[in-house]
Design a protein that fits this description.
With about 250 residues, the protein is an alpha/beta fold. The chain folds into two domains: about 120 residues, Rossmann fold, CATH 3.40.50; about 100 residues, LytTr DNA-binding domain (OB fold (Dihydrolipoamide Acetyltransferase, E2P)), CATH 2.40.50.1020. Helix 2 packs parallel to helix 3. The chain is elongated, with a radius of gyration of 21 Å.
């Protein structure tokens, strides 16, 4: 039995989801919450296996709520955003269900949960259970939070990732927020046809390069559309030229 909590400020949405979940006897709804603070209380006291979580709620968003948890259960978002499936860097989201939730999509999401469970049983325990490892594509929209500020950013609009200690600085528009993520972890999830590891400290968006110039020691200097100048290491220059057929 999978113990679940529904967290959504709309009572009708909670009722509708409960009705749909009657078709899935393996899911037991053990509690409901109408906002993020209630959600945190229920999760802390009941330790559910799964939460169905709304993103936009009065006060704190669903993402804010997850950021306050020491350890998050599996998450299926229920959201009214309909432009992209929202993918978060820091969130272990099994799926994103658009409201009104369709029974077929709910079944797909729960199927992913069962796959995840069987994988967990087969594999050794992992300290990074709260990290989403799915591949990110340039049309995906990602959630970025830095202090009190939050953005939904299309990956294609991010021109540069820069390593700053244990953090990565993300360059898009005039913004440069920091996220707690290593460049190596990001590189594993980014499409290598679009995002290129120029050197130890930088990953650049190939589509947002304005100018390429020869540089010291057989390297290259890339100028990005935001004006940043990034050196490509000698080793990576070979790979870059192969990729770009220079």
């Amino acid at each position: 039995m999978i113990r679940a909590v529904i967290i959504d400020d709309e009572r009708l949405a909670r009722n509708e989801l409960k009705k749909l979940l009657q078709e899935f006897p393996e899911i037991e709804i053990i509690a409901e919450a109408a906002n993020a603070n209630e959600g945190i209380e229920k999760i802390d006291s009941l330790n559910p296996d799964l939460i169905f979580l709304d993103i936009q709620m009065p006060g704190k968003t669903g993402f804010d709520m997850l950021a306050e948890l020491d350890k998050a259960p599996d998450v299926i978002f229920t959201t009214a955003y309909d432009d992209y499936a929202l993918k978060a860097f820091e969130v272990n989201a099994l799926d994103y269900l658009l409201k009104p939730v369709e029974p077929r999509r709910l079944a797909d999401a729960l199927h992913k949960l069962h796959l995840e469970e069987s994988r967990d049983r087969e594999s050794a325990p992992d300290d990074e259970i709260a990290v989403n490892r799915s591949m990110l594509h340039e049309n995906d929209q990602v959630f970025v939070k830095d202090g009190e500020r939050c953005w939904f950013v299309k990956l294609a609009d991010i021109r540069l990732f820069e390593s700053v200690g244990n953090y990565a600085k993300i360059y898009f528009g005039s913004n440069k927020p920091l996220i707690l993520k290593s460049l190596n972890a990001l590189e594993e999830r980014l499409d290598e046809k679009v995002f290129f590891r120029a050197n130890r400290k930088h990953i650049v968006n190939l589509r947002l390069i304005e100018k390429i110039e020869p540089y010291f020691n057989g390297g290259l200097l890339l100028e990005l559309k935001g004006g940043e100048k990034i050196e490509v290491s000698r080793r990576q220059t070979v790979k870059f030229k192969e990729m770009m057929s220079l």
